[in-house]
Design goal:
Elements: E1 2-8, E2 13-20, E3 23-27, H1 34-42, E4 46-51, H2 63-70, E5 73-76, E6 87-88, E7 94-97, E8 100-106, E9 115-120, E10 126-132, E11 135-136, E12 139-140, H3 153-168, E13 176-179, E14 197-198, H4 199-205, H5 214-222, H6 232-241, H7 246-253, E15 256-257, H8 259-267, E16 271-274, H9 278-281, E17 290-291, H10 298-305, E18 312-315, H11 321-329, E19 336-340, H12 343-349, E20 358-360, H13 362-368, E21 373-377, H14 381-384, E22 388-389, E23 393-394, H15 400-403, E24 412-416, H16 421-432, E25 438-441, H17 444-450, E26 456-457
Parallel strand pairs: 3-4, 4-5, 5-6, 10-13, 15-19, 16-17, 16-18, 18-19, 20-25, 21-23, 21-24, 24-25
Antiparallel strand pairs: 1-2, 2-3, 7-8, 8-9, 9-10, 11-12, 13-14, 22-26
Length: 463
């Protein structure tokens, strides 16, 4: 028996490869199929199953393409209904895989069809459980992502309580727990940093696995839930309905555009998405471009801030263009008209004008700050509890597009987040919307605190 976790940090997503006696199962694969095909080939195994813990909301799964290429059976748990061929397993059904078995445990709550997969070893004993978005390290799945459900989030949280109580907690403490996501995922509230744990450890440290009434559980799980990223329900629908093969998407979208073709697309309304690092973007970019760098949660922020139906063209470092296209496809963003051949250097070489963003270190900001300027903190609300800068306007980045009409374009804004990634996204959004006096605070709150910045105080209001 062999198990391998394939973790993708930018999506905080874990897929799994399980193998026994030449047969393999893939759990919750990403859109691209090559990593799973290559792994099975290297190990001389045949992929028998593609197991889906639920209809994912935060990424488009590679299950359909993988099944098409291998002949594997796509397996969902009870109540799942898709617009393509799937095998709907029964609760408690054992799926044979080589010398082991995978038991399907219906664990609704995150979604109605959510299921966990219990791996039984060669002796029929529980070895590990793949919980998808039911149980995470130190957290559980959010109960508000069911597609076209008449149930409230409180109803789903109640189902989650029963699933955990009846299906997961009775398992032995030494069972290894493999979750579907890690820290940074919006599929829970506050996931732990580890990507593998044991059930026994989670019984000790996971707030949602402690003894409590259903009412207390529902309150704990739903308290403090923020709105999910805007693309979540779109992706869940794609995973339910099906999609264009990824090879076709890449062939159509990863096209090099001349300056003339690039101009034509932008004149037709395409958004310029600049996928370079913030430190490079600020030195010079196509006017109106939005910076969401490949070095962070690129696809997540594109999905949170941009409309999937709106056409876009890309600017990326040379050699990174295909990656920029693929990572968009992972979250269902396929209306990409191509990328600028030669990147920003081609733009500059043609004598085109560029825009810039000024950046300041925290100590420079402290020296230059006056009352006619504004501080804009674009971190998420839970981050504010650790301290904010006095007088800062608090607007989570996800809410910034809707908040821009309430900001004054005649003022200078100093923008910061925790480390500098989100603040440059915010600066580019503001620049695109006509804000000319926008300054980025480098290093964000992390650097502010290290510099002993004297304006750091506990927040008193959420402005």
């Amino acid at each position: 028996m062999y198990i391998q976790q394939l973790y993708t940090s930018c999506l905080a997503e874990a897929a799994y490869y399980i193998e026994s006696n030449g047969e393999a199962a893939i759990i919750d694969p990403l859109r691209e199929t090559e990593p799973y095909l290559q792994l099975a080939k290297e190990r001389g195994a045949k992929i028998k199953y593609v197991l889906e813990t639920h209809f994912h909301a935060d990424f488009v799964s590679g299950h359909i393409d993988l099944a098409r290429l291998t002949g594997a059976k796509i397996v969902y748990g009870p109540t799942a209904k898709a617009e393509y061929d799937i095998y709907v397993a029964q609760d408690g059904e054992d799926l044979p895989l080589g010398n082991v078995k995978i038991r399907v445990l219906h664990t609704p709550g995150h979604t109605l069809e959510s299921s966990s997969f219990l791996l039984l070893d060669e002796h029929g004993l529980p070895n590990s459980i793949f919980t998808g978005d039911t149980v995470f390290v130190n957290d559980v799945g959010r109960p508000d992502l069911a597609v076209k459900s008449d149930l409230s989030r409180e109803d789903l949280a109640g189902l989650l309580y029963e699933s955990i109580k009846n299906k997961i907690l009775p398992l032995p403490d030494d069972v290894i727990l493999y979750p579907g996501h890690g820290a940074g995922s919006a599929c829970g509230k506050n996931l732990g940093e580890e990507t593998i744990t044991t059930l026994g450890h989670q019984k000790k440290v996971n707030y949602a696995l402690q003894p409590m009434s259903k009412e207390a559980f529902v309150q704990a799980v739903t308290d403090g839930l923020t709105a999910p990223p805007k693309y979540f329900f779109m992706d869940a629908g794609i995973n339910k309905k099906g999609y264009t093969p990824i090879d076709e998407v890449m062939s159509h979208n990863a096209k090099a555009l001349s300056l003339e073709a690039f101009d034509l697309e932008t004149s037709n309304g395409a958004i310029v998405l600049d996928a370079r690092d913030a430190a490079e973007f600020e030195k010079g970019f196509v006017p109106g471009a939005i910076n969401i760098g490949l070095n962070g949660q690129y696809a997540v922020w594109v999905g949170s801030l941009l409309d999937a139906k709106h056409p876009m063209v890309l600017v990326a470092d040379e050699g990174k263009e295909a990656e920029a296209v693929l990572r968009l496809a992972r979250v269902g963003y396929e209306n990409v008209k191509g990328y600028l051949k030669g990147g920003i250097n081609a733009w500059k070489s043609a004598g085109r004008s560029v825009d810039t963003v000024r950046s300041l270190a925290p100590e420079e900001f402290d020296r230059l700050y006056t009352e006619d300027k504004r501080i804009l903190d674009v971190r998420n609300e839970p981050e504010w509890a650790a301290g904010v800068i006095e007088g800062a306007h608090l607007v989570p980045l996800m809410e910034l597009p809707d908040a821009l009409p309430d900001l004054r374009k005649d003022l200078t804004y100093y923008v910061h987040c925790a480390g500098g990634y989100r603040s440059m996204i915010a600066c580019s959004l503001m620049k695109r919307n006509g804000f000319t006096n926008v300054i980025n605070i480098t290093g964000g709150m992390n650097q502010v605190k290290q510099s002993h910045f004297h304006l750091v105080v506990p927040p008193t209001v959420n402005a």
